[in-house]
Amino acid sequence: MVLWGLLLGALMVATVAYLCLQELLRQQRPKEPPLDKGSVPWLGHALAFRKNMFEFLKHMRAKHGDIFTVQLGGQYFTFVMDPLSFGPILKDTQRKLDFVEYAENLVLKVFGYRSVPGDYQMIHSASTKHLMGDGLEELNKAMLDSLSLVMLGPTGPSLDASSWREDGLFHFCYNILFKAGYLSLFGYTKDKEQDLLQAEELFVQFRKFDRLFPRFVYSLLGPREWLEVGRLQRLFHKTLSVEHNMEKYGISNWITYMLQYLREQGVAPAMQDKFNFMMLWASQGNTGPTSFWALLFLLKHPEAMRAVREEATQVLGEARLEAKQSFNFKVSALHRMPVLDSVMEETLRLGAAPTLLRVVNDDHSLKMASGQEYLLRSGDILALFPYLSVHMDPDIHSEPTTFKYDRFLTPSGSRKVDFYKAGKKIHHYTMPWGSGVSICPGRFLALSEMKLFVLLMVTHFDLELVDPDTPVPPVDPQRWGFGTTQPSHDVRFRYRLRLWSELCPGGRKPG
């Protein structure tokens, strides 16, 4: 037994030594991008990258230009920073840049879900069928009902609901959108009060997982944190289990369609539970944080708030809500609100910072917009970070760090789609949802959820910052690269519900 232990130890040492030697010997080949391995063997620049990805990539671009390869924890990433060169990467007609392989490994690690052949295409098919057109309208109505339940209670607001309340804006937005989204997608029991309590407790656990998520992906958790992640995974697998789903009604057709596919493929119920956890995260991990940024920007820019409220009044009429009522308007009105659309697009430009990754499956030649060609090495990862290379490019977006609610509006009030870089029209002028094969399949649902929530807040509530002069908080540096950014600290605000009886003297309706 001792002998086997010694042999195994020797084998492990030899393997590690070989891998380190391979990394030390790697050199830039002719026509390859600039190579920056960092000063620490194997780790390379991993610590600086994980500390603040945004600042690290700014430094690397200033040092190397629009394309460079860096070593991060034994893996080599080639970042392309010129958006005019994104086309061949996102289209990839040669199919040498694989998104699916990286995504499958990530969801297995984070959610415990092991993909089956064809399920990536299945998710896109389900999203096309149920998150667009009539399917989206149906889910929007369900979301409006869920928002009414979460924001107003099972019996609607009472007269004392219009008193001022105070909360952290980030917590408020994340909490409400998570609970409403969860109930809309995964259904209800016959006890609405209990549903709300369960959704609240699930949100508490979701936030615990959310806070650990960036370091979990990078395998930087301490021993106790690894145990906590395991506990949280098991909790969500149990809560979202297909067994529990059988006791509910109102489960979305989107979720039902995907689970039916997995059953037909012979996927075990335990793995379906893990799939549900993955879909809960994918659908609810970014809507709350994005809505936080949207409302904060509106509160910090009164002219933007006025524009949104005026548009809402023109499209919906005066907001009317009486005691014991639920929110009620035609969700199709969301399609007639270009000002709100522009606000959300500008919010996503400033707040969404995903990383788009592709595994290079075979040696590949990439032609940049400049005409120069670079060789990409098989096994490396090709990466785009549109927040820095697109969203913050002053050539594409003037004053890129400034919130301009009408940035995506033409002088006539329609949606603006013409943006330029170096005098050339650019197709990818914002990329909050990714692009190409990795574009978020649930983007239409997520955007509708956020627009519904923001619209309800600005039309049915009075809201203000506790300290009007409080600055917009900086981004938590750990969140760069993981979808929508989150603030380094919360912002306190006050809100109160507007009831129709209070808008009219003596509780009488006009007319």
From TrEMBL:
The keyword tRNA processing is assigned to this record: no
Keyword Protein transport: no
Membrane association type: Single-pass membrane protein
Alphabetical keyword list: Endoplasmic reticulum, Heme, Iron, Lipid biosynthesis, Lipid metabolism, Membrane, Metal-binding, Signal, Transmembrane, Transmembrane helix
Chain residues that bind heme: 440
Signal peptide, first to last residue: 1-17
Gene3D superfamilies in the record: Cytochrome P450
A GO cellular component annotation in the UniProt record: endoplasmic reticulum membrane
Pfam families membership: p450
InterPro entries: Cyt_P450 (IPR001128), Cyt_P450_CYP7A1-type (IPR024204), Cyt_P450_E_grp-IV (IPR002403), Cyt_P450_sf (IPR036396), Cytochrome_CYP8B1 (IPR030686)
GO molecular function: heme binding; iron ion binding; sterol 12-alpha-hydroxylase activity
Any single GO BP term: lipid metabolic process
Compartments, as annotated in UniProt: Endoplasmic reticulum membrane
UniProt binding sites for substrate: 109, 286
Cofactor(s) listed: heme
Similarity remark: Belongs to the cytochrome P450 family.
Protein's recorded name: Cytochrome P450 family 8 subfamily B member 1
Species of the source: Balaenoptera physalus (Fin whale)
